């Protein structure tokens, strides 16, 4: 069994119930939540969307808000001006180009204003069951430290993960890596001594 397979099996054993922590009830709600989650915790996003989605959980309803009104709802998520602009632009594209429905392919998702590859990958994978690996800060950090995929940009890490992991496992692996980054392999003080994967970790074993 190669090292990558051992790492994946180890992560799967640690986090058998790994799943998205953002709360959503439709592809559109997920899209909005993922946009809000940039440099913000899922817990805070969930608190914000709980209120926001009571009245504005479709593109048409969202577009009834002005940018200033939407900013007040999402202020707590940080970078609220850019995020409000992205949400409204994406909502307008969905209404005008896709008959009010969030598109279900990676290519179409990335045509939406303010939607980059990471956001598109999450929505494609989680909402539509597609095979994709979204590289956020946790996935980027853990992949590099473990040696699962080395790269200095999210794009390079994504390409490496796609080669290292069977396609059918991409979406699961995305959640495993996020869970490990949040619970053990922290940015500032990773709990290396108590990490069940330290025997496989490139960074830990090259100190």
Structure write-up:
The protein is mostly helical. It has eleven helices and no strands. The chain has helices at 3-14, 27-36, 42-55, 59-62, 67-74, 80-97, 106-109, 117-128, 137-146, 154-164, 170-183. The mean pLDDT is 96.
Helix/strand layout:
Layout: H1 3-14, H2 27-36, H3 42-55, H4 59-62, H5 67-74, H6 80-97, H7 106-109, H8 117-128, H9 137-146, H10 154-164, H11 170-183
> Can you summarize the main beta sheet?
none
Number of strand segments: 0
SS strand fraction: under 5%
Low-confidence stretches: none
Order of helices and strands: HHHHHHHHHHH
Structural class assignment: mainly alpha
User: Which descriptor suits the 3D outline?
Assistant: elongated
Radius of gyration of CA atoms, rounded to a whole number:
18 Å
Determine the N-to-C terminus distance: 25 Å
The number of distinct helices, counting runs of at least 4 residues, comes to: 11
Residue share in helix: 55-70%
Provide mean pLDDT, rounded. 96
Features:
mainly alpha, 207 residues, elongated
């Amino acid at each position: 069994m190669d090292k990558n397979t051992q790492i994946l099996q180890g992560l799967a054993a640690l986090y058998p119930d790994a799943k998205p922590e953002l709360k959503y009830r439709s592809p559109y709600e997920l899209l909005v939540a993922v946009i809000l989650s940039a440099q913000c915790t899922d817990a805070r996003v969930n608190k914000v969307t709980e209120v926001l989605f009571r009245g504005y959980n479709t593109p048409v309803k969202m577009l009834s808000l002005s940018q200033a009104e939407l900013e007040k709802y999402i202020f707590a998520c940080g970078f609220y001006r850019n995020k409000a602009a992205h949400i409204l632009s994406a909502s307008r594209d969905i209404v005008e180009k896709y008959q009010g429905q969030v598109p279900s392919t990676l290519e179409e998702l990335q045509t939406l204003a303010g939607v980059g590859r990471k956001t598109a990958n999450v929505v494609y994978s989680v909402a539509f069951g597609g095979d994709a690996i979204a590289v956020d800060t946790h996935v980027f950090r853990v992949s590099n430290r473990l040696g699962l995929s080395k790269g200095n940009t999210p794009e390079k890490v994504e390409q490496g993960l796609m080669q290292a992991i069977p396609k059918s496992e991409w979406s699961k692996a995305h959640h495993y890596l996020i869970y490990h980054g949040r619970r053990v392999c922290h940015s500032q003080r990773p709990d290396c001594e108590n990490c069940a994967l330290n025997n496989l970790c490139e960074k830990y074993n090259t100190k």
